[in-house]
Inverse folding.
């Protein structure tokens, strides 16, 4: 691992890159995943590398949807596992939500390696692909009958746009984690958390804890009042205002 001095101004961001490079060396991340990370980094730069105000509404709505769902599931790929398997594993364990390994660049070997990362958590992992989603043409169509196929809500992260639309066509609700508010994934999901995956699960945990103390009617109203397009617009306005604010280059 590269030695990155703690006082480097880009320390956090470089450490995130290191995790991906390590994941790549171990065969968890594919080369294309490194490029996808670059697109995410660019958007993280634009929002100031912190969770921004409008996105808290998406967090709250995501928690509401997860709490109201009968069979929610978290779909993970190589980048997600390399960047945040500890956070995802803890979250899945705490709220008893299963994980399914779902890969665009599918290989049995990579599925096994990703599975190993989650094995220390007490969580159900789906990695047997016994059915195909009729509405998805990439390898992501390979899913587990008991997992994604029977779920009502699927959480996806760091991916391109074929899965959310395919899942919604067969009646699933989709929560996406995607730093690009303009991506197909962001626009085609029911709820989009425009934030860096490495920041998402601790915040989502807080909302889950908070909302689970409320009655179903309150949780349902939060979901009914949520408008994903509005939130994406607010994110874009945030970025524009931030970039055109007088002190941006100070
Ligand atoms: P779409 O098909 O949805 O328009 P895309 O073609 O941009 O998406 P990819 O190139 O596969 O999709 O990139 C994956 C997405 O993941 C990008 O939108 C990128 O912004 C996002 N992303 C990358 N790294 C992270 C991260 N750490 N946290 C959240 N999102 C990320």
């Amino acid at each position: 691992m590269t030695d990155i001095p703690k006082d480097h101004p880009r320390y956090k961001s470089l450490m995130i890159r290191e995790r991906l490079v390590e994941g790549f060396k171990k065969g968890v991340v594919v080369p294309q995943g490194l490029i996808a990370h670059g697109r995410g980094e660019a958007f993280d730069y634009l929002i100031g590398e912190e969770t921004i105000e409008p996105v808290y509404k998406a967090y709250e709505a995501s928690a509401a949807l997860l709490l109201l769902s009968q069979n929610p599931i978290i779909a993970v790929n190589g980048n997600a596992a390399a960047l945040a398997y500890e956070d995802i594993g803890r979250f899945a364990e705490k709220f008893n939500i299963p994980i399914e390994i779902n890969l665009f660049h599918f290989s049995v070997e990579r599925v096994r390696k990703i599975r190993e990362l989650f094995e220390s958590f007490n969580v159900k992992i789906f990695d047997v692909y016994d059915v195909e989603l009729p509405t998805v043409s990439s390898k992501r169509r390979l899913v587990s009958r008991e997992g994604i196929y029977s779920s009502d809500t699927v959480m996806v992260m760091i991916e391109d746009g074929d899965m959310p639309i395919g899942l919604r066509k067969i009646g699933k609700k989709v929560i996406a984690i995607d730093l690009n508010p303009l991506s197909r994934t962001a626009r085609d999901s029911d709820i989009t958390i425009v934030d860096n995956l490495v920041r998402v699960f601790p915040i989502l945990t807080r909302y889950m804890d908070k909302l689970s103390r409320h009655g179903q009617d309150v949780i349902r109203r939060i979901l009914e009042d949520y408008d994903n397009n509005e939130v994406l617009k607010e994110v874009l306005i945030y970025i524009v205002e931030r970039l055109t604010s007088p002190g941006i280059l100070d």
Q: What stands out?
A: The CA atoms of residues 60 and 242 lie 24 Å apart. The radius of gyration is 18 Å. The chain has a mean pLDDT of 96.
